[in-house]
## 1
Amino acid sequence: GNESTVSITVVGASGDLAKKKIFPALFALYYEDCLPKHFTIYGYARSKMTDADLRNMVSKTLTCRIDKRENCSEKMEEFLKRCFYHPGQYDSEENFAELDRKLKEHEGGRTANRLFYLSIPPNIFIDAVKCASISASSGNGWTRVIVEKPFGRDSESSAALTKSLKQYLTEDQIFRIDHYLGKELVENLSVLRFSNLIFEPLWSRQYIRSVQLIFSEDFGTEGRGGYFDNYGIIRDIMQNHLLQILALFAMETPVSLDAEDIRNEKVKVLRSMRPLQLEDVVIGQYKSHSKGGVNYPGYIDDKTVPKDSLTPTFAAAALFIDNARWDGVPFLMKAGKALHTKRAEIRVQFRHVPGNLYNRNFGTDLDQATNELVIRVQPGEAIYLKINNKVPGLGMRLDSSHLNLHYAARYSKEIPDAYERLLLDAIEGERRLFIRSDELDAAWALFTPVLKELEEKKIIPEYYPYGSRGPVGSHYLAARYNVRWGDNG
Ligand code: BG6
């Protein structure tokens, strides 16, 4: 008949991402009845495992977090029955052809759509794309491939990767994931801006003094040093996650909510940006630190990291958009590992009220009086607005307070994981939250020159203790542009 089926193959099924994110997200979608009626999930990796081994492995990371309904374990059983495993090499057309034969059996003559999720290291990426697209792409339905960063490590290698990908796939078949785009509060950014009259007209240099994009983690690169050392925090977080948020934040109003309309605007704003300058970057690297009898290792204490590594685990940067809307407004980014807290947020600092009647009632600290809109991406998703009010009483003293939308208090349903939304979109062919190749080029163009300069000049990072607030250099950077970090970082 003309019924269709979706086969989802997770290539690199025994890896961390697959276990922690991909399988649990697929289960959550199944649980929510979001997967098509006919679907099959295949794990593909090199290890010799059986279907039962895979099911056992996957079952350990599935959770019944959604609504904690009672039939969860039943649902798990059902889901696991639809998961299979095929062992194979990533560069073997033959092994992928075997997978193809197995998929065909499950598909039973229906229109066969196939989604491949490549969760494998960059050096084997192209081989796997080649083999999957030659030997296991669908003959009669769509074939889509989800790819994860790193998409190269600079403009040249990224362009080369895109070129190789396009030997086997069309741009339409490539779904480049940036999982930050799947986060609830990042998706809400456009809603907040474009559907609220109290914000939309304020979104420009006229009212906004600076925009800050802050990412911090309270753990180091433990266990991932081998990958991380070749990339560093600028490539790991800034060039993708933070820049994507910036593009969504700063783009002009898209013609519609269609994927191409939105991505056109994102590319436009990225191309209006000035490539990052060396004097606008501060880099840092964490060193070991003992606290409360515990010794927290430094970055270079990781066995897989060279002792003389200069790779930044922290960076702060000031970026500028040279267009009419944002001329002169510093977009400050800060990203770091092994800091004192785990947090991702966007802080919008508004200008001072001109001729403010109440300046003197704030004492000397005028910055205290600026309105600030904070979008807390995680944890504890929230949007709050810092406003000024009078301290109640007979005097006239001013204070700042928060108008607060705290998601957990407002909504009882848990927020879905980013991978749930992104996987569902890929199955449905919705490209809005995936990165188009011209977007990727524009993103690399902003960071490639400075990355080269940092590496060629062997710029020494500022060392900061594990668990601290990071290098003081980030404060000098903000001060150059006459602003302060809103998080007191
Ligand atoms: C990944 C980075 O893209 O994002 C990691 O490679 C980082 O270094 C992770 O830890 C953070 O994602 P999340 O969703 O946990 O904030």
## 2
Amino acid sequence: MSVLVLVEHTDGNIKKKSFEAVQYAAEIAKQTNTTATALVLGTIADNELESLGNYGAQKVLHVADDRLNDLHARAYVSALIAAAQKEGSKIIVMLHDINGKAVAPRVAIKLKAGMVAGALSYPDLAKGFVIKKAVYSGKAFAFVNITSDVKVITVMANSFPLVQGDGKAAVEKLNVTFGDKDFGIKVKEVNKVTGEVSLADAELVVSGGRGMKGPENWGLIEDLAKELGAATACSRPVADAGWRPHHEHVGQTGGTIRPNLYIAVGISGAIQHLAGVNGSKVIVVINKDPEAPFFKAANYGVVGDALEILPRLTEAVKKFKA
Ligand code: FAD
């Protein structure tokens, strides 16, 4: 009856946000008097798997099939269902990211489970199994009660502060018999993002919009990001115009990020942009138009020309660090 949680890794290194998913599953396990079991797919060392005990997993099931190093949604579903059957799991947790969004609904359909996508709270068991999630691009919240026997939850990253313990999980190999169709998609090429800081995991993000005027000014964004140890992001028109690569585009049709600090430079603050960033803990907006809508969502705002403000801000950060 263990709570099952799918853990992701990159080249054998567990993603920080997966620790959050494990902690989330462990908290539900605690509240429901059971244990948390992590499922890890692909090539990864045992000591990395054991470290999941630090976040509350008692057991780790490892499917050591190197084909699972790339996302094969159907194979992931087969592995999750095999693990859920083995553990008798009625609650399955994964991240609300590209993998989770591809896998969770398929698992929910196969197991006839109710599902909450993008959980922002632990289930309120006093009211049933009620979970808070954002709707309408973060403009409102819904409180969803999952009444089915089996429950699938995808968890929004950066929503639950991570507390590291000192547990060590027991690692067990799990053999899964995959069907012909499980690997029906062939991954031909993987383009790795080689930025200094990965945007998905970044605590600090400096982001530019059309107000930056052109790609020739992006050095100003990068200089500030470098001084802060931040990742860089951009609005959609900036990526569409080819000023920046598409993997940096955040918003409704781009990535969703929840950093501790989001600095938006020359971005108007359209609802489609806010959808990807309004979970940030602190938002700083730099815009020359005092009426720019982004100021309404900002904790701090600077009205002025970004091309003048950015070099001064970078200098100030340098001096502060010295
Ligand atoms: P603009 O709206 O042109 O704003 C530029 C801002 O820069 C202005 O506020 C201006 O005052 C300021 N500025 C200009 N010069 C300076 C200067 N020198 N110094 C400081 N500030 C300056 N957008 C996204 O970002 N992400 C999405 O995922 C996304 N998805 C979409 C999905 C749909 C279905 C649709 C219809 C739209 C989507 N959009 C998305 C587009 C979105 O509606 C906005 O058009 C877009 O976010 C605007 O980008 P921007 O703020 O960079 O540009």
